[in-house]
Amino acid sequence: METDRTLLNAARMMDKDALVKIFDLYSSALYRYAMRLCGDAVMSDHVVGDVFAKLLDQLAAGKGPQDSLRSYLYESTYHRIIDEVRYSNHRVSLEVTDWLHQDGNVTQLSLEDQIMFQQILHAIQHDLSDDQRHVIILRFLEEFSILETAAILGKRADHVRVIQNRAIKALRKFFDYQDVVKTAISHGRGPRNISTATRSLSAGL
What we know:
The protein has 205 residues and is an all-alpha fold. The chain has eleven helices and no strands. The chain has two domains: 2-88, RNA polymerase sigma factor, region 2, helix turn helix motif (Rna Polymerase Sigma Factor, Chain: A), CATH 1.10.1740.10; 96-204, Winged helix-like DNA-binding domain superfamily/Winged helix DNA-binding domain (Arc Repressor Mutant, subunit A, Orthogonal Bundle), CATH 1.10.10.10. It has helices at 2-12, 16-38, 41-60, 69-88, 96-102, 111-127, 130-141, 146-153, 157-178, 180-186, 196-204.
């Protein structure tokens, strides 16, 4: 948080180093997030560019975020993607292959853990509503709090909790059917050996 404030104070003065650092800190993460929402590399690239252009305009006008830069950028990306999807009638989807290529941590997992991670992504893509998908991505993959997730999505915190609980219930049904967690444990690969997202979702299930 303090880093955000320091960077924002400098960025409002149009400090070039601060602006470059903000881009370096958040551009890759925002691109991955956009890809998780739309599965379109070109759209994701354009969205991230638009988000940073908007931030620059806001800062130059003395507006924009006061402290939580990360939440502000994710909120801008979320709304920009939603606008693009509505405009183009493009179905919001999650491409598992793209996710795995974008996440360097996945390649370091064991084969069993990679299979579990792929199964989680497949379930998120095919077994959740749009709202559930957005909440799970922000809460477990981007690691935002309930309050931060609510602010990004423009929903009440209690509403986000309801959506999250329903999403976890849907994912639990998927795993009960696929028997993924049981298979992984039987190979001696408990949740402690998998990615943060996989550990969190497995614990929730």
